[in-house]
Amino acid sequence: MERRNLLKEKDVLRHVYHKHITPQTCDQMLQSNHRQNRRNIISTRNLNIYLINMLWMRESSLTQRFLLWILLPAVVSSSSDNFQKALELMEEAPLIDGHNDLPLQLRILYQTRLSEANLRNLTKTKTNIKKLKDGHVGAQFWSAYIMCNAQNQDAVRLTLEQIDLIKRMCESYEEFQLVTSSEGLTQSDKIACLIGIEGGHSIDSSLGALRMFYDLGVRYMGLTHTCNTPWAETSSVGVHNFYPRNISLTDFGKEFVKKNERLGMIIDLSHTSASTARAVLEISEAPVIFSHSSAFGVCPHHRNVPDDILHSLKKNKGLVMINFHSEFVACNKTATVASVADHFDYIKKIAGAELIGIGGDYDGADGFPEGLEDVSKYPVLIQELLNRSWNEEELKGVLRTNFLRVFKNIEKVRNNSASLKPSEVEIPTKEVENPCRLNLKQYGKSLRNKTPSLYTSKLYFSLILFIVLVCIW
Ligand SMILES: [Zn+2]
């Protein structure tokens, strides 16, 4: 009997979500629904599942079952209509996602040997080309991320290798196209590839390195990952012990922010401390983004954005690209589509829908909500937001146009600054505290003060000898 009921539940679930739900996902959802039972969060999608559960549970009374038989078709049909509507909307406005760590997985799993991986059907990752297409992803910021442990060691080389990997990846698959401008992004009919750097340790406190990364196609720059840099503070406490005295943004950090903007590089504040984010927002002339963070007001995690920063970001016309990782969404390991949608509702209420984008963080974290397990599931979230009465304009903004606004705006700041000469500011050596750094100033000083070489001495000696001999003669 139990087994027959379970089979019926599976049939109904698969019917509700058409073929977009795999048998495995179906099993996971059912297990979870039985666990959650009557304490489901009230949203249309969860209501469906709740109703289905009630329908097949032996303890439901006859009256309950009768009422449910009447309610279920209406709820199921409205939800399924919205799924179709979500797909149509995403066809029209394919998603620009702010953060994906597939390149890191390719380093870990294949040591960056792209020839050994088939990106069309990778199975060990949450991202592959088929899933990106199913998820209606029109553009993806690939993260050229390298761990903080490489700070002051080989972070720059490793970041360059990650950029090389992303470029090779995007050039060797016809489904991808590398783009570096808002115009390129708008015109691309493939999955547009964009590059972002996650953490200031990747540039080794060098504005020259920053400019070269821009020339290579990088279009956003995260100020920190989980470690302080010499000039900016991370939100992660106690993970690394770099520059512990740094508690916000230093003068060089401020210079760095201004130079990023004039270059056309978007500043990414995900992973920075709230104090650093506030300092950046005070001086920024261009919109900034949080490429993969959620709302602190819903889940008070240090990776999320507090309300006062949301207000400042509204003035800045910036963007929070909401992160799906369960721990940032629900502050624990289990989350649902509804938990993610709560962050959308919250930020919309605090600062407006035009402040919102999506930065799923797939392949960069362990643990994603039920129903949003990989990059093919984005339409399920859009369906949930439609169920919550988000209108098409707001959703197109979330999917695409809000990011395009930020991108176009920073390009305008870059164009207006075109006549300015590149900055030659260097970080003070004592702030970097890195003995491995070659001190060329010292080298130049020693060259200037050098005593005459042996060759010069011999020349002087020969000259004097010649003069003496001429005088005697
Ligand atoms: Zn991250």
Automatic annotation (TrEMBL):
- Keyword terms: Dipeptidase, Disulfide bond, Glycoprotein, GPI-anchor, Hydrolase, Lipoprotein, Membrane, Metal-binding, Metalloprotease, Protease, Zinc
Q: What class of enzyme is it?
A: hydrolase
EC numbers listed for it are: 3.4.13.19
Entry's localization field = Membrane
- Membrane topology label: Lipid-anchor; GPI-anchor
Q: Which reaction does it catalyse?
A: an L-aminoacyl-L-amino acid + H2O = 2 an L-alpha-amino acid
Which is one Gene Ontology cellular component term of this protein? side of membrane
Presence of keyword rRNA processing: no
A molecular function (GO) term:
metal ion binding
Q: Which InterPro entries does the entry mention?
A: Dipep_AS, Metal_Hydrolase, Pept_M19
Name the cofactor(s) required for activity, per the record: Zn(2+)
Domain of life the protein comes from = Eukaryota
GO terms of biological process kind: proteolysis
What family does this belong to? Belongs to the metallo-dependent hydrolases superfamily. Peptidase M19 family.
Instruction: Report quaternary structure and partners.
Output: Homodimer; disulfide-linked.
| Record protein name field | Dipeptidase
Q: Which organism is it from?
A: Microcaecilia unicolor
Q: What lineage does UniProt assign to this protein's organism?
A: Eukaryota, Metazoa, Chordata, Craniata, Vertebrata
